[in-house]
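User: Run a structure prediction on this.
Assistant: Running it now.
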Amino acid sequence: MQVALLPTEPPKVEGVDLAGRFEPARELGGDLHDFLVPEADTLVVAVGDVSGKGAPAALYGAFAAEQVRSRTLRRRFTPDRFSVAGVLRAMNTILHERHLEEYYCTLCYAFFDFARGTVTMSNSGLPYPIRCSAESCGQIELPGVPLGSFPGIIYDEVTLSLRPDDLFVFCTDGIFEALNPKGAEFGARRLCEVIAAERKESARGIVDAIFHAVTSFRGTEPQSDDMTAVAIKISS
């Protein structure tokens, strides 16, 4: 059921290569990701992580994912009232009103506008997304409070210009915080090195390379958290 609720094939967007992969630590997990096309020449990518594991996290994640979808698709009818940070603000209000204090959701929401050549992002505590260009490969610093934690939170957003050959990667903390037998974390530096080395590959190849690198780094250490990675390559 959970697999059926996750995107199977990313939408076809001209000049863009997309891929995502999810591996739960248990049979069910709390990670979520989605690709949405609210209007022509646009793409929304959302990657999130619900606290906890197993069935409760999966149920909470399914509810959060539906909020992402409904808030995004409303743009078709009220584009003048839509904002990227506003999506997170509305979701925070709805999740907090459920009074599930032991649960929260980190989420990075990215709105790609290919007609304008921009991407606007807002984040609520997910590890910083990574941008890899011809010049550099590093994280986009974008902090934020997890959704559902406190009422009345205002979220920041950042808008970046898109360039051909840009690569954006979003990962949950199961990737960043994977441990090897010595207790060392995989970390952002190793992740950036993998992405930089594989940036000429397809989006699917990059995502698979990330999972392979984490699995090799972990060695005999068992997977302790859900893992999700999403890659978006801009070719034109």
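Residues 54-73 form the longest helix (20 residues).
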